[in-house]
Design a protein that fits this description.
There is one protein chain. This protein has 332 residues and is of the alpha/beta class. The chain is built from 13 helices and 15 strands. It folds into two domains: 3-114, NAD(P)-binding Rossmann-like Domain (Rossmann fold, 3-Layer(aba) Sandwich), CATH 3.40.50.720; 123-280 and 311-328, Dihydrodipicolinate Reductase, domain 2 (2-Layer Sandwich). Strands 12-11-7-10-9-8-15 form a seven-stranded mixed sheet. Strand 11 and strand 12 (246-250) form a beta hairpin. The mean pLDDT is 97. Bound molecules: nicotinamide-adenine-dinucleotide. Nicotinamide-adenine-dinucleotide binds at residues 8-14, 33-36, 39, 54, 69-72, 74, 92-93, 119, 121, 275.
Length: 332
């Protein structure tokens, strides 16, 4: 069976997904839509898919699955309609800015019985996926401590910050999912701090650009997350997990692997610039995993419950940063 996909949103990440679908055996990009007709027309020309409007794709009998790559505030209605029309759904993170809305969608998707995958692409990064597989194979025994470092090369425009929901929901959401992915046990307590050190305008907009979060599980395992909206040396994406019998670490991917050594020391390239370069392989692999799950009838993973749990952690971190108090997390 060839999975016939309709893509909603032809912006930055929509274009990545279109390329990933083209590279996925057993899937085809049948149609795409964008609120800006020119954006849809341009991507339609590049891919050979048909440009339609969003409502037509959501109702189309020749579409089996939709990829939701529109701005977050459009996700709710598109997911609801797709589910009601029996389509499999791949949705970009965050599923919605509101935990209550995601809970509603969990029910809607369950009632409809359609496959749903949340776009936590970092789970599919070859290095992070390998690190996690070795962890699960017992390479370092029981996990005791995880350290996740995630820093963007430069902050986005203030207009983006103002609509982003804040650093914890917009940026750290990926790290909350990674923390859960690595730990294998839900977190019960969280504590967050944050400052606006990179750009005072981010602080004036009510957000932070520098943040650290500590999470603990019921059995006492600890995870630390460090985020910044700036890194002079490129997109900084590293993971370290410490366990009973050793340590697993995934380092940055650099622009090239060339190193120069001279009397001043050893010099290597900056890290790959940003997410489109750094996670290209991960975006391909996640779309392959989605198509495979839908066509074989196996559960799509990460699912909508993972989107919900990450959003609960992001809300709790926002509250902890604002109040200066740790937050106890509800069992889900
Ligand atoms: N997983 C990741 O690494 C990652 C990276 C970037 C963005 N995202 C997520 O992807 C989503 C889109 O982000 P983006 O950066 O691609 O945004 P974008 O602004 O570049 O693209 C969004 C596109 O959707 C179109 N659009 C708006 N409303 C629409 C509607 N109702 N129907 C159809 N098209 C509509 C816009 O015209 C635009 O072309 C967001 O939820 C964002 O959080 C995820």
């Amino acid at each position: 069976m060839t999975l016939r996909i309709g893509l909603l949103g032809c912006g930055r990440i929509g274009q990545v997904h279109a390329a990933s679908i083209a590279a996925t055996k057993g899937a085809t990009l049948t149609a795409l839509a964008d609120a800006l007709p020119e954006a849809a027309a341009t991507l339609a020309r590049a891919t050979g898919a048909e440009a339609r409007d969003t409502a037509a794709i959501l109702a189309a009998p020749d579409i089996d699955a939709v990829v939701v790559a529109t701005p977050t505030d459009s996700h709710f209605d598109q997911i609801r309609q797709a589910a009601e029309n029996g389509k499999a759904i791949f949705c970009e993170k965050p599923v919605d800015m509101s935990v209550d809305n995601i809970r509603r969608l969990v029910d809607i998707v369950a009632r409809a019985g359609v496959p749903f995958m949340t776009g936590f692409n970092r789970r599919f990064d070859p290095s992070f996926a390998t690190l996690r597989a070795r962890l699960r194979d017992g390479a370092i025994g029981a996990v005791e401590l995880a350290i996740i470092t995630s820093r963007d090369p430069a902050p986005p425009p203030i207009s983006y910050i103002e609509r982003s929901g804040g650093l914890f929901r917009d940026m750290m959401i990926h790290d909350f999912d990674m923390a859960r992915f690595l730990m294998g046990e839900e977190f019960t307590r969280l504590s967050a701090v944050g400052s606006a050190l990179v750009d005072p305008a981010i602080g004036a907009a009510g957000d932070v650009d520098t943040a650290a979060v500590t999470l603990t599980t019921a059995s006492g395992r600890i995870c630390q997350i460090s985020n910044s909206r700036r890194a002079a040396y490129g997109y900084d994406q590293r993971i370290e997990v410490h366990g009973q019998t050793g340590m697993l670490r995934a380092e940055n991917q650099l622009e090239t692997s060339v190193e120069i050594a001279n009397a001043a020391g050893f010099t290597r390239d900056p890290a790959q610039h940003f997410f489109l370069e750094r996670y290209e392989a991960a975006y391909r692999a996640e779309m392959h995993a989605f198509a495979h799950a839908v066509t074989t009838g196996t559960p799509a993973d990460p699912g909508i419950g993972d989107g919900l749990r990450a959003q609960i952690l992001a809300d709790a971190a926002t509250r902890s940063r604002e109040t200066g108090q740790p937050v106890d997390l509800p069992p889900e």
